[in-house]
Every structure is written in structure tokens, then in C-alpha cells.
Amino acid sequence: MAATAEAYAHTHRDVSGGWLRPAVFGAMDGLVSNFALMAGVVGGNAGHSAVVLTGLAGLFAGACSMAAGEYTSVASQREVVQAELEIERLELRRHPNEELAELAQLYVERGVEPKLAFEVAQQLTADPDRALEVHAREELGIDPEDLPSPLVAAGASFAAFALGALLPLLPYLLGATSLLPALGLALVGLFGCGAVVSRVTARSWWFSGLRQLLLGSAAAGVTFLLGQLIGAHVG
Question: Are 168 and 40 in contact (CB under 8 A)?
């Protein structure tokens, strides 16, 4: 049996996205938003210093906003989960038999024979700490030992956004006076981010890359045209 299981063992991709999804989308957000912002300013005929200042402001403002939003979101989610866990802990203490029957019924609904379902539930919940973990997994769909960290989420969001936002700004920091080098880096970054996203989807790398390239280019193009329009009237 062990040999058979080993022979047919296989792995799946992390369909929840894990760290890859927030990191890639954070970088993509920074890249698209900052390049679009800079393109709008360039479209309004702003000088080199104004473009650099705009890019730096967009980088830090966006990264801080992303970090603050991610921290608040994850912290709030964690607090909700902890509140639900406390409710479940109290229910297990006050109504252990009812909770046992509830867990057994969940297994019955999944096709397990009633008697076997009760025995499995009884064995899994013999230890109080184990019982809370099992009920949390089965009823709430969460792992009490694997709750996300708000600080880690905020730091990752800040770093990913800043990295993406830095890409189109880099040519200007190195002395470029035209939008073309920034455009080239931005297009490469957009395609690269889209291609990496394919690791957590069923799409091919070239499809995901081209899709993100088109969407990001459209956002930058619209902002550039708006910058030209507004710049012409303001000027």
C-alpha cells in the first residue's frame, strides 16, 4: 500500500496564491499606477524635476497606502477569526456533546457512515486543543495555527509596490529626459508580472503576460492623453 501511494504521489500548485499572488499584484499595482501617473505628468509637458518628484511621491504615497490598507485589512480579518474561535471554544466547553454531534453530521453529509462518522469525530476531538482546531477547520475553514500576520502583510505590500513603482522611475533617476526608456522598462515589467501570475492560474505565461501588458498600457495611455488635455488648458 505504501509503495502504491508513493508511486502515485503527486503535487498541486498553491491555488490560494500564497505569497506569490499579493507580491506580484502589489508590484503590478505599483508599476501601473506610478507609470500612469508619470505619463500623465509628462503628457502635461512637465519638466524632468517635476516628473522625478511625481514619481517619488507616487512611489512613497502608494507604498504607504498599500501597507496601511493591507495591515488594516489583515488585522481586521484576524480579529474576526479570533472572535469566532473564541465563540467555538466556549461552545466546546459548554456543549461538548452537541458540538460532537455537529462535527459527526458534517462527516455524514460528506458520505461517511453515521457510526464511523461519530467514531472519527470522537477520536479527533478527544483533546480540547485538537477539538478546537478540527472544528475551526471543518466549520470555519481556517487553521488557528496559520493566521496571517498584519505586519508581514504590510511589509510585503510596501516592498512589492515600491519595487514596481521604482521600475518606470529608474530611467529618470539615472538622467533620462524622455518617457521612452521608462516606457520600455514598464512594458517589460508588465509582461513579466503577468507571466509570473500564470504560476497561480491555468493560463499560459504568454497569455497572462500579454493581457497585463495591454491593460497596463491602456491605463498609461489614457492618463497620458488626459495629462495632455489638462496640460493644454492649464498652460
Answer: no
